[in-house]
Specification:
With about 240 residues, this protein is an alpha/beta fold. Strands 3-4-6-5 form a 4-stranded mixed sheet, covered by helices on one side. A two-stranded antiparallel sheet has the order 1-2. Helix 7 runs parallel beside helix 10 and helix 10 packs antiparallel against helix 11. The longest helix is centred in the N-terminal third of the chain and has 13 residues.
């Protein structure tokens, strides 16, 4: 089977996994073996006829090579981030805020909540520091009921940074998309800031506009016990 004939079987407006490609190509070539498939996959990428857009995700159109997500933080986040960086330059922490979800939601989040995810052994200490430094409402690992009861404008929430969290090597305090997708359905205080009924459309918008490393995300989702539901939303 030549490359041009193989590409005729693929559409420009979708992505394919390796299993998708094997299934499609084997329909017309029952003798296609693993070595031949790997050769075809390599050559299609070498000649820019097929593009890898994520872990086990390929597309035939370069315009569908999606960008990596970078959160656009408000001054609320940057203020907390700067404070922690200056006082504790070696501290491992990740910033999130509820309003960055507005890019993907139909019903916009009006009141912002800032989240600081800090390495477990230091999270309670950082909570005390922020409470003293910010002089505002700071909550520590609230459940949904506590969040709803005590939340106030300008609220900052301190959470423990879960082990195996996907972390950016270049921007260590920015939340990665693979982490954010798991966190928004795992942490009850985050879930309280948006309507869960919007999750299917949210995941659809994200899949359409940003690159997502499925392997990285699924590993973290498994760590948080959300692998099955993440798979459902991503398959959507």
């Amino acid at each position: 089977m030549n490359i041009d004939y193989a590409l005729e079987k693929l559409k420009d407006d979708r992505t394919y996994t390796r299993n998708d490609l094997i299934e499609i190509l084997c329909k017309d070539n029952k003798e296609l073996n693993d070595a031949t498939f790997r050769w075809m996959l390599y050559n299609m990428q070498l000649h820019n006829r097929l593009f890898r857009v994520g872990y086990d995700e390929y597309t035939t159109s370069q315009q569908h090579v999606l960008p990596e997500y970078r959160p656009l933080y408000t001054e609320d986040v940057l203020k907390v981030e700067k404070l922690l960086e200056e006082k504790y330059p070696g501290l491992t922490f990740v910033m999130f805020e509820s309003v960055i979800l507005n890019e993907f939601l139909n019903h916009q989040i009006a009141q912002n909540t800032v989240y600081v995810q800090v390495e477990k052994d230091l999270s309670i200490y950082i909570f005390d520091v922020l409470k003293q430094e910010l002089g505002g409402m700071v909550l520590y690992k609230p459940n949904r009921a506590e969040f709803s009861k005590y939340w106030a404008r300008g609220c900052v929430v301190v959470l423990e940074l879960i082990s195996q969290s996907p972390l950016s090597s270049s921007q260590p305090h920015e939340i990665m998309m693979e982490k954010m997708l798991v966190d928004i359905i795992s942490d009850k205080s985050i879930e309280a800031t948006y309507s869960p009924s919007e999750l299917p459309e949210m995941f659809k918008n994200i899949r359409k506009n940003y690159r997502v490393d499925a392997k990285k995300m699924n590993r973290y989702a498994g760590r948080r016990g959300k692998a099955k539901i993440i798979e459902e939303y991503m398959r959507g």
